[in-house]
């Protein structure tokens, strides 16, 4: 049985990077984020909401690069998802591909973004069960949590959203400890996110004194993907953010700055994930 430890001080274990063409999104969709309370902060990164009201016939193709995080959401006014069988409260696991949503009409989404591994640590489920899937929240979180989120007034203002998410937080058990394996996953992910000199999983294993087998096992259970995938996504987020911020130097230099020493490999990975080549993405900016 794994050792238990006190909840760690909140670390930044996820970023807001990865939204493709963020300026275009902000003109059409109101995006808001606010912090989770100390009560759930060891497992939850933040809360967020999306609102949009587009004219008839107007639409916007929103694209986001994947993150190693799961979300618990309630949504109304969006396109029905057959996999939810009419349920509004859903769990979305780690999405390993570019996430595309056709935004049109009127929609409201409010969600809780878990830290990498946070949902698995809270529920005891394996995150592999949700990788590349959206499933009804019932059966994953308690009925009290689902009910609290489902009762949220999505037509209310920001105050209604905040009070509603406070009620959702209160529905989670208050006697949870942090499993040492999950605490180690958080430490590793935080390092991957913050230390731009990490380009290989071997560097991570050496710093954290953890074996390849152990790290792979823990990442697959708690996050749903392996450590190599997480590290590669964070470095690609850095590349896209640099381009969105106006980087206009040589793309070979940008690739090397973020650990891609083979230009063909970099271009192939970028195109597979983003949908266009780095040069084309910069032109479209």
From TrEMBL:
InterPro entries: AraC_XylS_family_regulators, DUF6597, Homeodomain-like_sf, HTH_AraC, HTH_AraC-typ_CS, Tscrpt_reg_AraC-type_HTH. It comes from the Bacteria. One of its GO terms (molecular function) is sequence-specific DNA binding. Gene3D superfamilies: Homeodomain-like. Keywords: DNA-binding, Transcription, Transcription regulation. The keyword rRNA-binding does not apply. The keyword rRNA-binding does not apply. Residues 183-284 form the HTH araC/xylS-type domain. Transmembrane segments: none annotated. PANTHER family: HTH-TYPE TRANSCRIPTIONAL ACTIVATOR RHAS, HTH-TYPE TRANSCRIPTIONAL ACTIVATOR RHAS-RELATED. This is AraC-like DNA-binding protein.
